[in-house]
Write a structure and sequence with these properties.
The complex is a heterotrimer. Chain A is mainly β. Chain A is built from no helices and four strands. A three-stranded antiparallel β-sheet of chain A has the order 2-1-3, with no helix packed on it. The chains are: A mainly beta, B alpha+beta, C alpha+beta.
């Protein structure tokens, strides 16, 4: 899963063992970025 | 346009006209009432306040000896002719 | 039955017009009006694929805005139902995305106006999307309404019946629409909608002219007023013809 560290703004890859922590700066707040998929929306 | 006759006799006809609304039905009713052969014409939309029925039901009563179905055909022709006349008049002015 | 109609334009522009029709019944006038609003199909965006949307608004909100942008509707016969036209938009902030930024795949289907704002984008925000436009009727969704502000009023005839008392203060008499004065058609906007301005010191009487309706028609830019009115008439003619055929069976 790809996240972005809220302190150093670097992209972070998390695996299920590492816990929630930025490997570069140790910050514990990570942000989930919008996926790059194309999203289809109907106009209602 | 699907038609379903709900009641029919010599001089009276009730017919459901699927897919139409006030736009066409009121014009048609107006045209029917202009005919001398028609004694009464009305339509009813959504007789049941809620639930299924929403298509208009047209009811026509005619003078003795006049088939209401013929009157309906006549009415449709009148609407077509009137609208065509309006269209022509509009295009002439435009 | 041959009915005689008489149509006369009072004001006329591409997108807005006022015209008088003589000889129509109220039922018929209303049928035409309703057909203009709900039964003349126009093009509008129906699905949007977002490639990137880093703006402050949700995809759904922007999709709705794109849907409401009026698009020019191709001439009859050029287009069959279920055909789609794709419009793409790609704007990088800081900028405002306008309807004019939409790039269409078909010359016949373009934004009717170039200056409809869609969203303001700040630094590093971007909107990139593809929108599919389809043809549909006003009764299904307001975005498919070609006629906006369509209505009619009775033509009113003004008659001067006498002079007012010399020292009497004239009260204003407000009318809106078009009045007929001695056969001449005058839009009430010419005298600020007040008969006291046009006939100072006179006593006037107003009456509705039977079977004479003044239509005011404004389109959203999908097509011209002429086009809208003739297509509305066609839609009624089609239905009458269809009923005629159905009854004959």
């Amino acid at each position: 899963m790809s996240y972005k560290c809220s302190r150093c703004k670097r992209d972070v890859e998390l695996d299920e063992y590492g816990g929630v922590r930025c490997p570069y700066c140790g910050h514990r707040v990570l942000l989930k970025e919008r996926s790059r998929d194309v999203k289809e929306v109907g106009v209602n | 346009m699907e038609l379903r006759v709900t009641e029919s006799s010599e001089t009276e006809l009730s017919i459901e006209i699927a897919g139409e609304d006030h736009t066409f039905m009121n014009v048609l009713k107006g045209a029917l009432l202009e005919s001398d052969d028609v004694t009464a014409a009305t339509y009813d939309m959504n007789p049941e306040q809620s639930g299924g029925q929403t298509d208009p039901i047209l009811t026509i009563k005619t003078e003795p000896g006049v088939d209401p179905l013929d009157a309906l055909e006549e009415g449709a022709i009148t609407v077509r002719e009137k609208t065509t006349a309006f269209r022509d008049a509009f295009e002439a002015a435009a | 039955m041959a009915t005689d109609y008489d149509v006369e334009f009072v004001e006329r522009e591409d997108r807005e017009a006022r015209f008088l029709v003589r000889g129509v019944t109220p039922a018929f006038a209303n049928g035409i009006r309703r057909a203009m609003v709900a039964d003349v199909p126009t093009m509008a965006v129906d699905t949007v694929r977002f490639i990137e949307n880093s703006s402050v608004m949700f995809d759904e909100q922007i999709a709705l805005r794109l849907g409401l942008v009026p698009l020019t509707t191709p001439p009859e016969g050029e287009f069959v139902e279920d055909d789609t036209v794709t419009l793409s938009i790609d704007v990088q902030g800081p900028a405002t995305a306008y309807s004019g930024d939409l790039v269409s795949s078909d010359d016949l289907v373009q934004p009717a106006d170039e200056n409809v704002p869609i969203i303001q984008l700040k630094d590093d925000q971007r909107l990139e999307a593809e929108a599919d436009a389809i043809m549909n009727h006003g009764k299904n969704h307001a975005k498919h309404q070609g006629g906006v502000a369509v209505g009619y009023r009775h033509l009113q005839r003004v008659e001067v019946v006498g002079d007012l008392d010399e020292f009497e203060e004239q009260e204003s008499q407000i009318v809106r629409g078009v009045v007929e004065d001695d056969g001449e058609l005058v839009p009430t906007s010419e005298f600020d909608h007040d008969l006291a301005n046009r006939y100072p010191g006179k006593e006037v009487r107003l009456e509705d002219v039977p079977e004479a309706f003044v239509f005011h028609v404004e389109t959203d830019g999908s097509f011209t007023v002429d086009e809208l009115v003739t297509r509305a008439a066609d839609s009624i003619i089609d239905r009458a013809t269809e009923l005629e055929d159905a009854v004959q069976l």
